[in-house]
Amino acid sequence: MLSRRTLVGAALGLAFGVLDGIVALGRSAGGDFTRGDRASLVLTSAATIGVVMAAVAMFHALASRAFAERSAASRLYQFVLAGPHRWFARDERAALRALMAVVGALAAAVTGFRLTLAVIRSVRTPTLAALSIVGFGALSLAVGAFVAALAGLVLDRPLRRSQRLASPGAVLGVAFAVVSLASLVAAVLGRGVLARLSAAPALASIALGCCYWFADRTLARRGALVPAWAATLSSLALLAGLAYSAIALGRSQTVLDAVTGRSLLAARVLPSMQRWSDRDGDGYGRYFGGGDCDDRDPSVNPMARDVPGNGRDENCTGMDAPAPPEDRPPPFVAPATSHPSIVLLSIDTVRPDHTSLHGYHRRTTPNLERFAQQAARFDRAYSVAPQTVRSFAAAFTGRPPAGLCWGRDVQFPPLRDPNELLAEVLRAEGYATAAFTNTSYFGLTAGFFQGFEHIEQGGGFKDDAPFTADHAKAWVERSAREARPFFAWLHLVDPHEPYTDRTSPQDFGHEAIDRYDEEIAHSDAVLGRVLPTLDAIAATRPLIVVIFSDHGEGFGEHGVLFHSFDAHEEALRVVFVVRGPGVIPGVRQSLVSLMDLYPTLLAYVNRTPALRSPSRSIVPLLQSPPNAVIPWRGAVFADVSPAGDLRATSVALVAPPWKLLHDATRGAWELYQLDRDPLERSNVFNREPAVAEQLRARLADLARPSISHCPRR
């Protein structure tokens, strides 16, 4: 039995691994693959899944032998292996037990999910959250047991009378059908194609398990015998393939990126193998593409800062890093107008290439187009993080998220008092300040509204955007009648998932991407309620208006749906348009970051940031013609990380025409030449080693957190 199941598991794992590798190649269409890369990718995937399945099969065989020695477990095991003729045989007692188990499990799962979600949203410290989840887990089991007992009392008699359901197989089959139908309806009505795509790894795993069970039962019925040497030989061959992958994976970053990011099954296994091989605890292992060249020294790893000229290779590139180029900020330039009123209009989750302002084929942003005719539009604007709180925290402080003072929280860490936010500075300069948003999201982050005198938030995640916009417009109109300058921020969350299927002002369809575009058009129409008022005010007093988005959204372009988890262009590029006195309209190609909003607006009140920061005022760009040559920054940095956590899971450096990305969870490096490959399809990391090395040194230097100004918690 051990030999048979080991061989079956190995063979099926090998077959599914080959298919998984082919899927990864298909999902990496346009990648920079050589013939050897393709073979290595398929071999790695096949060996990984083959070894895992062989191990699972061996565990199954050993567990079967152990269960056979215990009567209760043996009866259950024999029942499972007996097949449909036993599953659907009339057995009222077993059917009732199956029904109670299903009802109890569903009740426990629903209760546990709701309670855990409540803990994540409300409990503010990790220790208390962990204790709460453990306690609620026990409560969920108790609720499940109670509901199961109640179901047994209520459904016992109807089940006995039933001619078709009085078998465990029928009960479980109906339960499976109901749950599957409910899941399908939720997927179609909720997230459409995106939900079905995200379920692909689970479906592939289920298919592999079903094939294994069917093959094992077929061979068992026929009494097929497998020599021990055949199983041993196949296992050794798979182990040899896995050993090759452990050593060779990572030599080609194209292969590593594809197998850990685009495959369905191997991508769930290989990152764990990387972490298991990490001996020094720095987050990088030596094998399976982990890239750690000295796994005994935690100061040496692929994301360590390599000190130039010290003769050590701290970041495992094979050489001592060159000194990064000096990126001096331009001298301070005073704006044309001092202390103008300021209005920030932001829309959540809008990627520029889905706006007609940036040439999208659908007319999603006509109001923004009209506004931009008299404004400066930045086509190379980036967020510092594809996550709302981190992005706005950087925009309102001029500092990267890793350089801010965060409090302790599970999901929404507070912005502590040492952070000086934009509204605080403007209020100290005599501005009236107000914030309006149609979501309750920001209220979960304590300290986020520091400096705002007047705050209006939505009661839920998505509230009525026109209502919020009308309140903001009324406040601005009242403030404009006073001599005191004002600062207003209006944020619309509507393009954030889940997307509403709208018919007005545009009806593009019913798929997720259609509904996303409809939400952008809806938000643009809501801004259209406010912009005429701002036009009228700008005719009577100095007024700066900035329209921007906080991050983008992914639709599977790089295997990622939605945002918060990815640092490719679709997640980081943002809309950024500025209009005001002294601003020369036109398109700018200079590289800017949302962090630049803070020093720019401070310049309008004759202030400079109190702390050193990579952000810089864009006033020189605003007051110069679009085609003027102005020395500007050479790169912008972004990262992907849990809010408040200084350890990034992914980092990116945009240094035109190049962009370098590193995913720490997979150990993968990506390098793209954006002027030739704007969709980031061809990873040229191995083809351009000199560029990759230079950018790696610069990336490690920028990725270091700087929080010396934060007092200890």
Report on this structure.
The protein has 713 residues and is an alpha/beta fold. It folds into two domains: 2-258, no CATH class; 341-634, Alkaline Phosphatase, subunit A. It has 21 helices and 16 strands. It has helices at residues 2-27, 35-67, 71-82, 84-87, 92-122, 126-161, 168-191, 193-198, 200-221, 228-248, 253-261, 270-276, 366-372, 388-397, 422-428, 465-480, 512-538, 569-572, 597-603, 619-622, 689-702, and strands at residues 341-347, 376-378, 381-382, 432-437, 454-456, 486-492, 543-549, 554-555, 561-562, 576-579, 586-588, 592-593, 636-640, 650-655, 658-663, 668-673. The strands form four sheets. An eight-stranded mixed beta sheet has the order 5-4-6-1-7-10-2-11, with helices on both faces. Strands 13-14-15-16 form a four-stranded antiparallel beta sheet. Strands 3-12 form a two-stranded parallel ribbon. α1 runs antiparallel to α9. The longest helix has 36 residues, at 126-161. Mean pLDDT is 83; it is low at 190-197.
The Cα radius of gyration reads 29 Å
The number of distinct helices, counting runs of at least 4 residues, comes to: 21
> Mind telling me the CATH class of the largest domain?
Alpha Beta
Number of domains: 2
Shape: globular
Question: Biggest sheet, in brief?
Answer: 8 strands, mixed
Architecture of the largest domain, according to CATH?
A: 3-Layer(aba) Sandwich
CA-to-CA gap between the ends?
59 Å
Name the CATH superfamily assignment of the largest domain: Alkaline Phosphatase, subunit A
